[in-house]
Amino acid sequence: MNKKNLIKDIALCAMFEALLIVSTFIRIPMPFDDYLTLQLEVVILLSFILGIKRSLIIILLYVVMGLIGLPVFAAGGGITYIFKASFGYIYGFIFAGLVVSILSSKIKNMNMFKSILISLLGIIIIYICGYIHKYIIYNFYLENQSLPLKEIILATMAFELPKDLILGIMCGCIAIKLKKIYLKFTNYNIDSL
Predict the structure, then answer these.
(1) pLDDT for 144-175, tens place per residue?
(2) What percent of the chain has pLDDT over 70?
(3) What's the gap between Cα 119 and its chain centre?
(4) Are 35 and 22 in contact (CB under 8 A)?
(5) What is the DSSP secondary structure assignment for residue 55, as one 8-state letter?
(6) Which CATH architecture has domain 3-192?
(7) Closest CA to 37 of 47, 26, 29, 46
(8) Residue 191 confidence (pLDDT) above 60
(9) Among 64, 53, 52, 54, CA closest to 12
(10) For 28, how many CA atoms within 13 A lie in the half-sphere containing its CB?
């Protein structure tokens, strides 16, 4: 990679890191220590567009920044954030980012339908991590706060899940075009991602 491409790469990664952080602060409080944000959609798009290495670096950097105390998470930051019920969604970003970036770079003949399925799969992975973590926190960590998994899932059915599924479909629709623009801008070979 030449110096010009390295500078473009760093600038684009910094831009997506900033976009991920900003998407956190567009939030609406929800029941059970949740927030309605745009993080999931940004994670899906950057994972689809930037490839495996770049997307994981951005997502891991975001998680590390929050855990060391920078207030980049929806409710602040710090190592104690691990014990918040919503932390499962955050580590779900890592798993979803990995799956979305691998599938989007390895699947041949990518079309809009496949792109939408990959986006929705990423959102499902994030929700599964979120539900599991929330269940563990409410049933094993917090005293006198037992909460069945069914209630945790039903709490997201009204606003969070529909919003993320609709925006996930939109992400799948635009991801292919954005990836083409990204590859053209950076002059990367798709196999190098």
Answers:
(1) 677 788 888 887 777 788 888 999 999 999 99
(2) 93
(3) 10
(4) no
(5) H
(6) Orthogonal Bundle (1.10)
(7) 26
(8) no
(9) 54
(10) 5
Burial group, residue 144, by CB count within 10 angstroms (0-12, 13-18, 19+): exposed
Question: Domain extents for the chain?
Answer: 3-192
3-state secondary structure of 76: strand
Q: Terminal CA-to-CA distance of the chain, rounded, Å? A: 12
* Token pair recorded at residue 59: 């997502």
Fill in the amino acid letter for 143: E
| The predicted structure's pLDDT at residue 181 | 86
Asked whether the beta carbons of 173 and 120 are under 8 A apart, the reply is: no
pLDDT of residue 92 exceeding 90: yes
User: Closest Cα partner for 100 from 161, 168, 177?
Assistant: 168
Residue 31 confidence (pLDDT): 67
d(C-alpha 165, C-alpha 160), whole Å: 9
Look up the pTM and report it: 0.88
Length of the chain: 193
Q: Give the Å distances, CA to CA, from 36 to 29, 75, 99, 184.
A: 6, 12, 23, 33
Report the amino acid identity of residue 160: E
- Tokens describing residue 179: 């990836």
Q: Which two tokens stand for residue 158?
A: 């009204």
- Using an 8 Å Cβ cutoff, are 188 and 52 in contact? no
Angle between helices 52-67 and 39-50 (to 10 degrees): 150
Which residues lie closer than 8 Å to 149 by C-beta, 6 or more apart?
A: 131, 135
